[in-house]
Design goal:
Phosphorylase Kinase, domain 1, five-stranded antiparallel beta sheet, 10 strands, globular, binds adenosine-5'-diphosphate, alpha+beta, three-stranded antiparallel beta sheet, binds magnesium ion
Amino acid sequence: MRITKERFKTRNDVFDARTDRNIFELSSKGHFEEGTLSPVFIGKEANVFSAKTKEGKKIIIKIYRVNTCDFNRMYELLRMDPRYPKLNKNRRKVINSWASREYKNLHRARDAGVSVPTPYLIKENILLMEFIGDDKAADKLNISHDVDKKFFEKVVDNMKKLNKAKLVHGDLSPFNILVYHHEPVFIDFSQAMETDTMRYDEMLTRDIRNIAHFFNKIGISTTEEYIRKKILTK
Ligand SMILES: Nc1ncnc2c1ncn2[C@@H]1O[C@H](COP(=O)(O)OP(=O)(O)O)[C@@H](O)[C@H]1O
Ligand SMILES: [Mg+2]
């Protein structure tokens, strides 16, 4: 199939030609059926789609936009990560590394038993992962009404497992936690850092504050101290 104007339009003209070619390549290799691509969310840096495999299984495709994201900020944050020692300030390379970090972080989190979507594949700025949801994508915690004290404890337990895996999420909030069959699923891991990097403490403190604030707001009372202690005691 040719890369036609029509196909570009369906994606609001957001992707550069190389990204479009990679989408086409991934679908021709059988990772998903291109005709089933359907938008789930348009974020600051990435567009998230769902698609179906030939067998009818849904997957998520997260595509970082090469032209319209703040690659200077990404560069500064990646520079602090010892996993990317030789990064130079090339827009495409920085964005690919940013996407690859999300893939690596998801793997590491998953291996440690954190509830996250299983990452399937990374191709430059395109990340394929498990679809969390049934017919439609699972609700985010900020709009879910299906949350109790037990759910809160599961969130803290996942934060603890993540810490044990020597990772800190860095943008943990009700917008990056999905609620699926009473279970929290953490998403959006591109900014997550290793715990022995400079910004670790600042990031952990912010994650704890966001979580404490949210649960207090919905009437499940807790404190930042309680969460921190739970996370950091062995
Ligand atoms: N694996 C997934 N399963 C279901 N929905 C997802 C998944 N990953 C992302 N989403 C949806 O896409 C939105 C944006 O994804 P996210 O990774 O948080 O990107 P952003 O960096 O734009 O915030 C999420 O809030 C969620 O609604
Ligand atoms: Mg997000």
